[in-house]
Design a protein that fits this description.
Blueprint (H helix, E strand, L loop, with lengths): L1 H26 L4 H6 L7 H11 L8 H7 L5 E5 L2 E5 L6 H17 L1 H14 L1 H22 L6 E2 L2 E2 L17
Helix pairs in contact: 3-5, 5-6, 5-7, 6-7
Amino acid sequence: MQAALHAEQRTLLMAQVRRLEHVLRDRVLPTPNAQRLVWVPGIGKLVAYTLLLEIDDIHRFPSVRHFYSYCRLVPGADNSAGKTRHKRSRDGNRYLKIAFHHAAIRAVQYFPEIRQEYQRLVRRKGKLIARARIAKALATIVYAMLSKEEAFNGKFCGHILTRKKRPKWPRLTNPSA
């Protein structure tokens, strides 16, 4: 009985997700910023939707550091009596943190230069910090692209990426647009 109810719930939720994706695709995907984002390594259409809808206007962040903080990509600080302690902060947008970490995982899986940088960081800092640094680098790319309204230049941490995304749906424009 309970398994049948869960199956019905899953079917209903999947139908709602498809309907929302269809509405978002028609409203968000044709925008120039969405078209720029889907060319970034690790960012697909759902992550691009999440980033655009959660960031809203990139110009509300005066610097990339404010953007990092809002995305929860840097540790919080607890300063007292001249001492600084880093802590996990709940300030900022948790959905952006999830989106950037998901994009980091995908980028490491599919792009050899990013995988190489990740493995270098894992040897020095560990898996969690390495993934956070890759997510932060992706956030830097996103901030630069959205604030300057330029296309992705094909570089990650100074390395030119050898693998490119294919120009198929959902990409409506070419990467130089």
